[in-house]
């Protein structure tokens, strides 16, 4: 819908009244972008669209999932190293170990809001390989440290180097796919974290058998071998990671036009070139949605890191050996990966991302209630399953929800950086709530995670969904039309999600 000089309320069409129930407006013609499919039938257009989506999926998703698997493996393998003797061999107290964990999240979180701007300006094919090589080098040095100071320094720089991948890839994918297509891709991407948790336990158990080789402990080899693998993958990523749609070399001119037209029809312009301006940064800072989604994300991300860093320890305290504890950490992660993808699919189809968060969060709350209330090993192990099921799907779903509701190339990047950065900063809390003196029940830790999920994840999702629904009603009633009065079409386009015709995903 275009802005008019009329003072009468804007009356949405019947099609768009239906569309708002799904959290979207139906596409409008895009006249300023060449149409390579002009003159084709609807069936032929649909066939071209399916072929394009398949090409995008095959070129983008598998490698990016592989990169995040490596990233999550590298940041959480310290939990596997701990139960293999890291803390004892470095003569660290419980407080020093938790401090080393915290330092990662401090540098990781503080740098994240800036990384999407760097990603856009340096190009994904340069930025992502560069940070991978850097964190691979840091990871390798973690296997060479001899005391707390060395480990703490390495963890700080690991967080600095890794900061750009997760927010960067989510932002990057949002510049390729329609809002109704992004959720399942983000879910598949994030499911690599659950696979990493599962695979990490198996890999750590195998590598730890190298204990004594080269005079190194088994946990040293976990860091060294995984760090070297990251360096090699980072080098390969220069050829495997593609740039944004307006520069990606694997697209033909016709396919590039199709991508841009699809996003423009979806009320997005994120595929097109845009120069950075500080106004985009301030638009993100002043937007209430930035803080709403940051609160929700801290609810699931704080729980995520507590879970992933300490699951091997929790299972070990049930009476299992270090190797068996690593192996028993596999099934909860595998189940979480499956549900993460399923929720991504459901949320894309229903456009009810808030409801998905609300329903799934109850699984996690129930799981940590079991861990908090029971001392039986079987009940606690079942609780870890429900905990994983309640945490992992909400991570990718919350990122998709935030991305769906923010428009503008740089604004979206800054918002996602703030949301993810704030969530990860709560890893500092997660790193310090499972204390050695609380063994074997870890009640303060379980209680804190449960509070995060109830207050921030569940409560934040409910309040944000109600606020977005209220704003949609105002826009449909024409109460935001004054935002576009006297503006040109280009100025209206630059309003992004503040365009009165932009309706929020609930």
From TrEMBL:
Coiled coil: none annotated. Keywords: Membrane, Transmembrane, Transmembrane helix, Transport. The chain crosses the membrane at residues 60-78, 98-119, 126-146, 152-174, 186-209, 221-241, 291-315, 327-347, 354-373, 379-402, 414-434, 449-470. GO terms for cellular component: membrane. Residues 1-41 are annotated as: Disordered. CDD domains: MFS_FEN2_like (cd17327). InterPro entries: MFS, MFS_dom, MFS_trans_sf. Signal peptide: none annotated. It is a multi-pass membrane protein. GO terms for molecular function: transmembrane transporter activity. The keyword Electron transport does not apply. It is found in: Membrane. SUPFAM superfamilies: MFS general substrate transporter. Residues 1-25 have a biased composition (Basic and acidic residues). Pfam families: MFS_1. Residues 60-506 form the Major facilitator superfamily (MFS) profile domain. This is MFS nicotinic acid transporter-like protein Tna1. It comes from Glonium stellatum.
């Amino acid at each position: 819908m275009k802005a008019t000089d009329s003072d009468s309320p804007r009356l949405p069409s019947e099609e768009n009244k239906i569309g708002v129930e799904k959290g979207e407006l139906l596409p409008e013609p895009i006249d300023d972008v060449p149409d390579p499919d002009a003159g084709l039938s609807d069936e032929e257009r649909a066939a071209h669209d399916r072929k394009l989506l398949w090409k995008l999926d095959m070129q983008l998703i598998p490698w990016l999932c592989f990169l995040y698997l490596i990233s999550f493996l590298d940041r959480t393998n310290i939990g596997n190293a701990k139960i293999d003797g890291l803390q004892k061999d470095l003569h660290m107290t419980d407080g020093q170990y938790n401090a080393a964990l915290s330092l990662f999240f401090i540098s990781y979180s503080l740098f994240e809001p800036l990384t999407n701007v760097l990603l856009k300006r340096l190009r994904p094919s340069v930025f992502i390989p560069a940070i991978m090589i850097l964190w691979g080098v840091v990871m390798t040095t973690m296997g060479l440290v001899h005391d707390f100071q060395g480990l703490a320094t390495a963890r700080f720089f690991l967080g600095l180097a890794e900061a750009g991948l997760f927010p960067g890839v989510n932002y990057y994918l949002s510049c390729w796919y329609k809002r109704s297509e992004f959720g399942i891709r983000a879910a598949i991407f994030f499911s690599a974290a659950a696979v990493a948790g599962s695979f990490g336990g198996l890999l750590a158990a195998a590598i730890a058998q190298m204990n004594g080789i080269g005079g190194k402990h088994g946990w040293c080899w976990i860091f060294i071998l995984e760090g070297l693998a990251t360096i090699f993958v980072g080098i390969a990523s220069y050829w495997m990671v593609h740039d944004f749609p307006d520069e990606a070399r694997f697209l033909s001119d016709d396919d590039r036009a199709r991508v841009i037209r699809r996003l423009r029809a979806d009320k997005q312009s994120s595929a097109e070139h845009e120069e950075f301006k500080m106004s985009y940064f301030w638009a993100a800072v002043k937007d209430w949605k930035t803080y709403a989604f940051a609160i929700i994300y801290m609810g699931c991300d704080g729980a995520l890191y507590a879970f992933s860093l300490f699951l091997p320890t929790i299972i070990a305290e049930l009476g299992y050996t270090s190797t068996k504890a690593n192996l028993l950490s596999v099934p909860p992660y595998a189940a979480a990966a499956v549900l993460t993808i399923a929720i991504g699919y459901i949320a894309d189809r229903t456009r009810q991302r808030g409801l998905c968060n609300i329903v799934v969060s109850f699984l996690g709350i129930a799981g940590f209630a079991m861990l908090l209330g029971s001392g039986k090993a079987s009940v606690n192990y079942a609780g870890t399953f429900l905990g994983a099921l309640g945490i992992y799907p909400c991570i990718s779903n919350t990122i998709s929800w935030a991305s769906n509701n923010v428009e503008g190339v740089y604004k979206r990047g800054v918002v996602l950086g703030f949301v993810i950065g704030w969530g990860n900063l709560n890893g500092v809390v997660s790193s310090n709530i499972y204390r050695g003196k609380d063994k074997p029940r870890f009640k303060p830790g379980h209680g804190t995670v449960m509070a995060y999920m109830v207050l921030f994840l569940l409560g934040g999702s409910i309040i944000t969904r109600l606020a977005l629904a209220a704003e949609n009603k105002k826009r449909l009633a024409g109460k935001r039309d004054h935002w576009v009065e006297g503006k040109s079409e280009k100025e209206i386009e630059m309003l992004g999600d503040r365009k009165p015709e932009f309706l929020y995903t609930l």
